[in-house]
């Protein structure tokens, strides 16, 4: 049986045609784009896991035109929104969106090596085993020396560091005890077991973090 949607996750409002608008994506897009421009390779292929409405990746492609950007999404309904933003932007380095559930084992076999993989606001919405599968498959998909950036809210040393985070985490685990905030130490340890070195953790607005990993050359 399909689980009901998680309350409080990735709220998006209808706009023109198939387009959806997520206020949270609009708020954090500039900070994330600024970070990615400092670490992205001069050229290459980038994959965004769980592209959502499509707002982020259009901005990434516009600000980093020498990189080809591949949006993906597990929700078929949101693929139309991504395509709508893509059509409006008309950027030659933005590929057509692809259906991808990154929590499914084996998906890396269908994706050519990527120089950069980006994931935002998903790990707290999936179980720990699903998160481990996602990280393992992402590691396999990266080219040598490729980078994996995971953005979102996290526990830090087993603690939730703001009242808002504690409230949101509780609301998630009340709906499904298998989901909720992941601890940075656990995510770093998982990444290391699949050949990803932790490069840096960046503080971003609204108490979010970006965990940066690199695959060995």
Write a brief caption for the model.
With 217 residues, the chain is α/β, with parallel strands linked by helices.
How large is the radius of gyration? 16 Å
Succession of helices and strands:
EEHEHEHEEHEHHEE
* Overall pLDDT: 93
Basic shape: globular
Corresponding CATH architecture: 3-Layer(aba) Sandwich
Number of domains: 1
What is the helical fraction, as a range of percent?
A: 25-40%
Under CATH at level 1, the class stands as Alpha Beta
Taking the sheet with the most strands, its summary is: 7 strands, mixed
User: CATH superfamily membership, which one?
Assistant: Vaccinia Virus protein VP39
3D architecture notes:
- The chain is an alpha/beta fold.
- The chain has a single domain, classed as Rossmann fold, CATH 3.40.50.150.
- It contains six helices and nine strands.
- The protein has a seven-stranded mixed sheet with strand order 5-4-3-6-7-9-8, sandwiched between helices. A two-stranded antiparallel sheet has the order 1-2.
- The mean pLDDT is 93.
